[in-house]
Amino acid sequence: MTAPLLRRIVIVGGGSAGWMTAAALSSLLDPKDVAITLVESDAIGTVGVGEATIPDILAFNQMLGVDEADFMAATQATFKLGIEFVDWGAKGTRYIHPFGQHGVDMQGIDFHQYWLRARQDGATDGIEAYSLCAVAAQAGRFALPDPNPRSVLSQIRYAYHFDATLYARFLRRYAEARGVVRVEGMVGVVRQDARGNIAGLTLSDGRMVEGDFFFDCTGFRALLTGQTLGVGFVDWSRWLPCDTALAVPSGHAGPPTPYTRSTARDAGWQWRIPTQRRVGNGHIFASAFQSEEAARDVLLANLDAPPLADPRRIAFTAGCRERFWQGSCIAIGLAAGFLEPLESTSIYLIQEGISRFISLFPRGDIPDILRTEYNRHMRTEFEQVRDFIILHYAATTRDDTPFWNYCRTMTLPDTLLHKIELFRETGRVFRYNDELFARPSWVAVMLGQGIVPVASDPIVATLPGSEVAHSLASMRNAMAAAVQRMPSHGEFLSRYCPTVAA
Predict the structure, then answer these.
(1) Fewest C-beta in 10 Å: which of 142, 302, 437, 481?
(2) Over pLDDT 70: what percentage of the chain?
(3) Of the candidates 333, 317, 304, 157, the residue with the CA atom closest to the CA atom of residue 239
(4) What residues does 355 pair with on adjacent strands?
(5) If phi over 0 gives left and psi between -120 and 50 gives alpha, with beta otherwise, what is residue 450?
């Protein structure tokens, strides 16, 4: 006999994690078949800083069926073509990790191998000159991608910057319109059944909320997964020693840029995320290497415009849960783990946690193999993102502060060490297990951080240098001309998605 479907799903906690979960499930499940309840309290704040995203969020919005312009207006969003990294490889350096590819692969060989060959022949152009997203970002211009694959504009890939609080509000309206019931209240007691699985909640005023399945979206508290079920935490702070963030909004000092900026500081880094109406700023630092007062001074001294509030402190430990799905409960968002937002992966990891659950949607009896597969997949996702973030710290020549000396000399995970050595010796990057960051991303960061292969591909090395130079010049000129025809980012926003009142 087939086990019954889950009939009652309870999401504990709101914010981006809770309302993304509610929106995604309500877009797929009929409320007549499955009741979805979200429990949150206005008395409990969310982290809610400005969010920068990666292009995968477009697939999430398409799944929901939301109109892009409406979504952007409601969340005061801007477009994002990549991330600019300042002072990371060495002081005084900067590079862009763009979305999308560099150039065009030729004869089955990666484009960057041709760029390496030209470099060995004396060319001085950085690889960014061959990325349409990087060139447009540096010029402050934007256009939507052309669906025609023969057009150079087909190479545009983008994501968004938006106000996380407004994003949660937007998703709440979406989810409630599809039958999700929001319950205002504080959780007093989490009740478990005889097997230790979560069976229901008793709110602080005595009301009961029953469920067959639960999502823990309670942030760093991990009320269900950590505090109740006792799932342990895997600490990665030996590789990612930053443990505190100070976040503050500021006004604009000019048109919003179509990229995020990350600037390395003496004991961490500072972010700059421009939305349409304000700029989100923050300083992530390692408290073992810098005091909070000094970090605050650094943050406020390096804003482009006056702050609109006092800096807010957020403490964290880099790492993830030993298991993400325990019994009848899945941890989503900060309850599942935290990896600093250096590559804007926070929303992606929420999205992936939801999507993987949907792909494994269980019967009422929840076979163990589903938990095993979910936990395997999510641990792999976190580890792969972890390695990519560690790369930024480890691949540096900075030795000007104790923090950077620690990062430059720390022992790396074997998985990351293998990627670095393979690229340094051969210029090759391979993608494993459908990992998030593809070859162009690894190439952009490794080259940007100063890891340059000792030689180019041996097949490319046999080609006439003049042919390689001609092909590269043609690509570079086509991209520069295409960018010149684009409107400015600010002009495009004003036509496409002007903001509405918050």
Answers:
(1) 481
(2) 97
(3) 317
(4) none
(5) left
Phi, psi at 478, each rounded to 5°: -65, -40
By three-state DSSP, how is residue 379 classified? helix
Say whether 152 sits in a helix, a strand or coil.
Answer: helix
**Is the pLDDT reported for residue 195 higher than 60?**
yes
Query: In angstroms, rounded to a whole number, what is the distance separating the alpha carbons of residues 314 and 438?
Result: 31
Average pLDDT over residues 60-88: 97
Q: How is residue 244 written in tokens?
A: 């505190």
CA distance readout (Å), 259 to 14, 129, 494: 28, 16, 17
3-state SS, one letter per residue, for 12-23? ECCHHHHHHHHH
d(CA 490, CA 409): 42
CB 135 within 8 A of CB 480: yes
Question: What pLDDT, in 10s, does the model give residues 450-497?
Answer: 999 998 899 999 999 999 999 999 999 999 999 999 999 999 999 999
Cβ-contact 170, 68 below 8 angstroms? no
SS3 state at 282 = strand
pLDDT of residue 2: 56
- The residues that bridge with 269 in the sheet, in sequence order, are 264, 284
The residues with which 201 forms a beta bridge, in sequence order, are 190, 209
What is the per-residue pLDDT for 1? Answer: 44
| Mean pLDDT of the 294-302 span | 98
Closest by CA to 243, choosing from 274, 261, 223, 220, is 220
Q: Over the range 107-125, which residues count as b (16 or more CB within 10 Å of their CB) and which as e?
A: eeebbbbbbbbbbeeebee
Amino acid making up residue 194: A
Q: What is the 3-state secondary structure (H, E, C) of 197-220?
A: CEEEEEECCCCEEECCEEEECCHH
Residue range 394-414: mean pLDDT, rounded: 97
Residue 393, token pair as written in the block:
């710290």
To which H or E segment does residue 175 belong? helix 164-177
Please check the confidence at residue 63 and state whether its pLDDT lies above 70: yes
What CA–CA distance (Å, rounded) separates 94 from 2?
58
> What pLDDT does 239 receive?
98
Report whether 25 contacts 198 (CB < 8 A).
Answer: no
> Full-prediction pTM beyond 0.85?
yes
Q: What is the DSSP string of 37-95?
A: EEEE-TTS-----EEE--TTHHHHHHHHT--HHHHHHHHT-EEE-EEEEESSSSTT-EE
In contact, 330 and 215? CB cutoff 8 Å: yes
Three-state DSSP at 385 gives: helix
- Which residues are known catalytic residues? 80
Among 40-49, 338-347, 394-403, 435-444, which stretch is predicted with the lowest mean pLDDT? 40-49
Give just the sign of the alpha carbon dihedral 71, 73, 74, 78: positive
